[in-house]
Amino acid sequence: MASLPASLPRYMSHVPPRHTHHLHDLCVFPRNLSLTKQGSVRELRIATSSNQTEPLIDSTDKLSDIPLLSCSEAIEKLKQNRENYKGKQQFLAMYSSIFGGIITDAAAMVIPVDDHMVHRGHGVFDTAAIMDGYLYELDQHLDRIIRSASMAKIVLPFDRETIRRILVKTVSASKCIKGSLRYWISAGPGDFHLSPSGCYQPALYAIVIEDQSLFDSKGIKVVTSSVPIKPPRFASMKSVNYLPNVLSKMEAEEKGAYAAIWLDNDGFIAEGPNMNVAFVTKEKELLMPNFDKILSGCTAKRVLTLAEGLVRDGKLHGIRVDNVSVEEGKRADEMMLIGSGVLVRPVVQWDEQVIGDGKEGPISQMLLNFILEDMKSGPSSVRVPVPY
Ligand SMILES: Cc1ncc(COP(=O)(O)O)c(C=O)c1O
């Protein structure tokens, strides 16, 4: 019997010690490796066997520790897990076309593992904010998920009107007044093949997440992403393939920044991992990168419309959507991140470059106020009432 010391992988170094004992339950180890001591993953031993027809399992294996659960026991575990790991967010309701209805018990908010979205990333999603009992820009986000589904070659599970009705009803059932509605359209469950031909029906899932926090207008720092940007075909659809986005966000956090900014393959400024970017130039022009190689942000598009008021008031001299070089961006008077998650967030530093005078810019603040105002009392084209 050989003994192999094994330390925790680096990506788990942030896992608090009280959680590492659960790794025993979560990790799948090769059959010929066993834990020497229950609750410890710091030392693994390899069992060797001269008879290769025998399973390579040593006698200290605690296979009996892995229970065979009945359906009701598994559901009980799901409930316990929800009780034990309460995060900051509350999930108030979920619609699933698999259930054909809405559930409000977070323990049952699950997605089938054979869904093509889960094991192949063949799904698209979107998010709309809920503000004071209204869904903000629901139709714009709905248009985008339908576009994304078409690009991902996923047939809609229902017609647009039915999807819209289900989404509004899910928010209504949640009784959520402030938060967000996230929803997915996937190729659906069926089998584990690469081709979706065995997926028997596309699926719709939607979840309501409560969020009472206020939008922050404090200036933040960004860095240039070293994680490669997705090619335009994939960056311009909102598929569930967000690994580059996650890695980019992690890179920013590792560098003490809020977000990492992508440049496109020609070196022009593209977008952040879940937000668009915009600038106020020295000539007092609102400047936004072209949307052809990135996600067409619903908030950014709305900002472009609302900013026309600032042009009328003479606070801006113009609005331009164009290629933006890094040099032009870094010497701008103001830089901001724009998206449904951040609304409008001023950037005061990009890499080593201080933006403008290093303080939150007045135009960013005005645009944030415009969006907040729009969410609270904008026209019916951007505010869909939820009948609670
Ligand atoms: C990659 C990316 N860019 C931009 C945005 C901003 O889009 P929106 O304003 O519609 O939230 C998002 C938001 O999810 C995003 O994921």
Automatic annotation (TrEMBL):
Keyword presence, Transferase: no
Record GO terms (molecular function): catalytic activity
Cofactor or coenzyme needed: pyridoxal 5'-phosphate
GO biological process: amino acid biosynthetic process; carboxylic acid biosynthetic process
Alphabetized UniProt keyword annotations: Pyridoxal phosphate
Family classification: Belongs to the class-IV pyridoxal-phosphate-dependent aminotransferase family.
Protein name: D-amino-acid transaminase, chloroplastic isoform X1
Species this protein is from: Herrania umbratica
Higher taxonomy: Eukaryota, Viridiplantae, Streptophyta, Embryophyta, Tracheophyta
